[in-house]
Amino acid sequence: MNQLIRIVDDDESVRESLSMVLKMEGYEVKAWSNAKDFFREDFMSAPGCLLLDVMMPEMTGYEVQQILIERSHFIPIIFISAYGEIEGVVRSMKLGAVDFLQKPLDPEKVLAAVAKAIKNFGQRPLEIEPAEAYRRYSSLTEKEKHILELIDIGLSSSAIAERLSLSKRTIENRRVLIYRKLQVQSAEEMKRILRAVESRDETLRTEQDCLIPVFDT
């Protein structure tokens, strides 16, 4: 499947220049001038990454990242900005951003960052073997497994935080760590992992039942 490179930036010249550079490399590209249109029109179904401007009217890039996390869409993000404020950079990277590029953008650095995002995060298999799913699931702590169960039933970060008496930021940070350990970037992929683990457990129970000796009476 072709990689879709998404661009969200309110500067038309940036959108056009990035689109041209990426299309010349053979990527499929879609661009939006604001976050609202991006959320309305993109369904995160195509693999790829997101080039996201930090300072935009109505909704900042950091706010877009928070909403994506809340919706369990862990698409790899490359932040772009004319301002290199350290606090925001550090927080965005902790929440899973792949890179942070300063404007004016260097085409070679953009292409390198996109290639890195796609190589590390952008392609996922549609199916996963139960044994591999269980290996990833087993890497979670008991607290992380509990949070994962709450995510699986559809609770938001705010609802989980309230239930566990933790801050929303703490839950979001742990959600990111859980997704990293499971090697997924969306709720759909996470659910496939859990269903594969359940399938493995069910198979083991069936095999054990078959081993129970039957005595004639």
The total count of helices amounts to: 10
User: What would you report as the Rg, rounded to the nearest angstrom?
Assistant: 20 Å
What composes the largest sheet?
5 strands, parallel
| Strand fraction | 5-15%
Count every beta strand, where a strand is a DSSP E run of 2 or more residues.
5
Give the strand order, joined by hyphens, for the main sheet. Answer: 2-1-3-4-5
One letter per element, helices H and strands E, the order comes to EHEHEHEHEHHHHHH
Helix fraction by DSSP (H/I, runs of at least 4): 55-70%
- Which descriptor suits the 3D outline? globular
Give the N-terminus to C-terminus distance in angstroms: 60 Å
Overall mean confidence score, pLDDT:
85
Structural class: alpha/beta
Low-confidence stretches: none
Describe the SSE topology:
Blueprint: E1 4-8, H1 12-24, E2 28-32, H2 35-41, E3 48-53, H3 61-70, E4 77-81, H4 86-94, E5 99-102, H5 107-122, H6 130-138, H7 142-152, H8 157-164, H9 168-182, H10 187-211
Parallel strand pairs: 1-2, 1-3, 3-4, 4-5
3D architecture notes:
- By secondary structure, the protein is α/β, with parallel strands linked by helices.
- It contains 10 helices and 5 strands; from the N terminus they run E-H-E-H-E-H-E-H-E-H-H-H-H-H-H.
- The chain has helices spanning 12-24, 35-41, 61-70, 86-94, 107-122, 130-138, 142-152, 157-164, 168-182, 187-211, and strands spanning 4-8, 28-32, 48-53, 77-81, 99-102.
- A 5-stranded parallel sheet has the order 2-1-3-4-5, with helices on both faces.
- The model has no long low-confidence stretch (mean pLDDT 85).
